[in-house]
Amino acid sequence: MNRLDSKKREQVISALVEGCSIRSTVRMTGVAKKTVMRLLLEIGAVAADYQYGIFRNLNSQRIQVDECWAFVGAKAKNLTPENKALGAIGDIWLWAAIDADSKLVISWLLGDRSASTARAFMGDLASRLSERVQLTSDSLNVYPNAVVRAFGTEVDFAQLRKIYGESSEPEKRYSPAVCIGCKKEVIFGDPDPAHVSTSFVERHNLSVRMTNRRYTRLTNAFSRKLENHSASVALGYFAYNFIKIHRTLRCTPAMAAGVTGRLWEVSDLVALLEASERGLERAA
């Protein structure tokens, strides 16, 4: 099977991590659409596996978690037997946990907004931490049970409940509700009220929507299949954690968290992919 050379792979991946769509990546690089899609799946798997393995025994102190909505194939209200057969699954939520100090995205999970997904997400998060942390979430009611099952009593957990008022604008579809206040609720432990916040993870959600084309609202740039969506998310997080310099930190989140001592480049990610391919060839 013919493969792209390293430089062409770097061009394709660089376009994808900068938020370009599949079709615009095809136009800019001259690589066939099917080849771009195949490379996305391959590099997404490598990015996910690497982060899954290296984000262990982290000494984070303050963690913020939140969920970001998208859909695959069609929105839940528009699901039909026909588009289900093509891979549509409806609404999907990206659960993410961010270190409030290093801005590292420690854990993420794609799923629905149910208690079982919350338990899986919190279980994965707890497995990556080496010490007691302060944890803040929004007011979603599935969090308390999931947190206590994952952490037991070894966590300081609070929820931030936002209070929304009516918008004065006549058009509401494109205008978010107005937040008129917040209420900090200690669920268990002894969290510091000064650090009960979800500001960093909510700002991170904005970064996801700005850099991952599949999360752009009110467009046709959504994922058609879950595997493509998952690969895109994993690649985006690798770029965020290892490649892109955080403007406030002046280094990458992975460097700030002590996960790596250097600034990564797209070529390093391509090298991981090619090392994985050589390993598979030797195994065969």
Can you offer a commentary on this structure?
Helix 3 packs across helix 10 (266-283). The chain is an alpha/beta fold. It has helices at 6-17, 22-29, 33-54, 81-85, 115-127, 143-151, 199-211, 226-243, 253-256, 266-283; strands spanning 62-72, 90-99, 105-111, 134-137, 156-165, 178-188. Helix content is 43%, strand content 19%. The chain has a single domain (6-283), classed as Nucleotidyltransferase, domain 5 (2-Layer Sandwich), CATH 3.30.420. The longest helix has 22 residues, at 33-54.
Mean pLDDT rating? 92
Examine the secondary-structure arrangement and name the CATH architecture.
2-Layer Sandwich
The overall number of domains is 1
Specify the biggest β-sheet.
6 strands, mixed
Query: Helix content range of the residues, please?
Result: 40-55%
The CATH topology is given as Nucleotidyltransferase, domain 5
Strand order of the largest sheet: 3-2-1-4-5-6
Overall outline = globular
Query: How many beta strands in the DSSP annotation?
Result: 6
- What distance lies between the first and last C-alpha atoms, to the nearest angstrom? 15 Å
Return the string of H and E elements. HHHEHEEHEHEEHHHH
Rg for CA atoms: 20 Å
SSE inventory with pairings:
Blueprint: H1 6-17, H2 22-29, H3 33-54, E1 62-72, H4 81-85, E2 90-99, E3 105-111, H5 115-127, E4 134-137, H6 143-151, E5 156-165, E6 178-188, H7 199-211, H8 226-243, H9 253-256, H10 266-283
Parallel strand pairs: 1-4, 4-5
Antiparallel strand pairs: 1-2, 2-3, 5-6
